[in-house]
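Its record is retained below.
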Amino acid sequence: MASPQITHPDPDEARSGSSRRNFIRGAILYAMFVGAGVSTTGCGGGGGGGGGGPPSDNSDAFQHGVASGDPLADRVILWTRVTVASPGALNLKWEVASDANFGAIVARGDATTGPDRDYTVKIDATGLQPASTYFYRFVLGAQVSPTGRTRTLPIGNVAQVRLAALSCSNFPAGYFNVCAEVAKRDDIDVALHLGDYIYEYGLIGFASQLAFAIDRESQPPHEILTLDDYRRRHAQYRSDVDLRAMHAKVPVIAIWDDHDLADNAWSGGAANHDEGSEGSFVARRAAAVQAYHEWLPTRRPDPADPLKIYRSFDFGNLASLHMLDTRLIGRDQQVTLDQYLSGLADGPTRQLLGTTQLEWLSARMAASSATWQVLGQQVLMSRMHVPLSVASSISPQTLAEYTLALSTPEPVRSDSQRALLAQRRVPYNLDAWDGYPAAREAVLAAARSQSKNLVSLAGDTHNMWGANLTDASGQRVGVEFATSSVSSPGFETRLPLISNTLLADAFLKMVTDLRFAETSKRGYLVLTLTPAEARGDWIEVDTVLSHSYATRIAASLRALPGPTNLDLVQA
């Protein structure tokens, strides 16, 4: 077929490429990095693409790269998008091969796309072999997409599974060095994106202060509300070479969180949505969900219900992964601290998953004989209860007063220190499972009654956490590994007057179940599962404001299976 005309980037998105603008940006970057002692030469992550680098291609038709996702033992979703100037339907071809040179093609077919799906293409490539690596590409006329690499899930006896978990990839907040690092690795079976794949804010939104200096200003420039807005924002994120490289290297299983729609979303609204000035929340939610499914390699469990995104994946007899929606389909509205203190969060019918999803999860765990039951979900499940004085105002003073009282021997404690230690403990984050105690108890009770080894994976907070999962009686039911963010800042910007060491140490002292905390670095989590243990390695990058960066393992913790062993300890 004839090759269609290729568009150039939207002028509104490309903005001005003038030498004056580039000079100003370069001057800001130079001053920022030199002042911070950051090297301006050499690349830890490469010039945006990292050592993994994006696959090369021979056309401009596939500017947003390729991706794969939601792998099963015999199939996987393949994704791309075509950039064309003239509207109308397009016909493409796709190929899957067992080798990178496409000498042994194992599956091929035709695909159609058009403006009704924003020219995105999703193929469920079937008839594949378990635990196998494949290569795939798309063809439009004489133009060939980048080559992607993917892998199917194993069956039977499985010795090891290795997952990379990441979340909160905020384009204007910094470079996606975390994605570059995942793309470099050859040992990751699947990458899990646990939410906030995009952010909804405009030019002056959250963590956008340095966006101009690093050439990552949000487009469109306003807060996104419509289907076209969400599509354009996804397109901007896919302009990132490191994100494209990760997608081309490893299959991704993704779940949405609030910023994929709007801040602190729940089933009936969002903190960052005003119906009076921004229109119908239901319409905005439908637009966000449609764009998400168009731009992510998801397999919808129910084509008739785009909101239903919870689904399971089996890695033989080793692990069952249950991807949960704690955000849109069943969540009741968040409570304030005052409401929590008055008991409004304690209702037995208060929902986070919703009854239908909870029943599905319980049934899926009961039907699984795998060693590990893994929850891929958005928000912290562990009990992050801190003293009321700290929850009301986290500050150097409140932290110092409480930790000093804690370290003072009882015989010499003052009455005020005893009062500090005796005060009520409350959640520091009511958007998490802590704000929905009955819902958490229901999940933990199901896992406990079925004698399951439960592992929760969480994102959302932009910080690294490792904790035990205990029920209301204090019984250990599982463990939680919570990843930091790709680029969104953590406590280091919210609480700049408190050192990371002091804050992390204070959390470890205040929170009984907590075993590890890192509150100032971006990064990702590697979860390695074997029949003998679940091990989490937290990988941090030292900056997201330069393509020159360093990485290190911040911590390694593990848990053994069995009801008496589910306790995070140093690996």
Notes: The chain has 15 helices and 26 strands. The CA atoms of residues 96 and 136 lie 4 Å apart. The longest helix spans residues 19-35. Confidence is low (pLDDT under 50) at residues 1-58.
